[in-house]
Amino acid sequence: MTQKSPYDQAFALQNLSLGKATEYKSIYDASLLQGVPRSLNRKELALSADNLPFFGFDLWNIYELSWLNSKGKPVVATGVVKVPFDSDNLIESKSFKLYLNSFNQTKFSSLDDVQKTLTADLSKCANKAVSVELNGNLDKFADKLGTFDGTCLDELDIEIDNYQLTANYLQGICSAVTVTETLYSHLLKSNCLITSQPDWGTVEISYTGKKLDREKLLRYLISFRQHNEFHEQCVERIYCDIMKFAQIDSLSVYARYTRRGGLDINPLRTTENSGVINNLRLLRQ
Fold first, then answer.
1. Is it the case that residue 4 has pLDDT exceeding 80?
2. How far apart are CA 67 and CA 217, in angstroms?
């Protein structure tokens, strides 16, 4: 059953291109980009823009980007985009795809010109400086294929009979022992807030604090299975719920979602203000 959006009164999500039949433009058009205010989700989580409990960013990998050089010859590239956690808006994914498609039949003088254009447009949409790094040499393979370090929770032999999101699974999650460890699961699945189409991901939880009960944590992560929310918002919810129920000194929640429309989204929320993350491509990406 599709869940009713809790944001209907605050923001006209129905005006987004997501979930609608859309013309694919092939001439550059920055107006195709659409932002979603981060405040909508954060109000529900009782988060204030002036006192956010985390740092981080939304890391996007671009795999389908092409334009024409000054002679009309096609050029292709990949790219990495970082949208800061404290931008006013997140970048709506379908609008990002449509925007990138609009480069296809547009002439640019150089890769640097395209990179500057992307940086300016995405920063305007997010209302915060966004970093963009393009790679025009596709024979120089920079991607690292692998998996997360740490302990995978997915082999735990647990019985599940409820797939509705609840943070109650995290009650009493802490033991008396203090540890530093990394846990991860490939079983994260949620649904798009607007279309209810499935979003598949792997989530890594690294922390120092009272040891977490792994079965309770896995049940909680699986409870997202029928939940409707954007990728970035799911990660913030996981971070905030763990912080609420656990005794944590430091925490990082990092999710890598499978590619859709030539883009993958990988949000990070963390207590550490380092700005560094391993852009490791997982098998499903």
1. no
2. 45
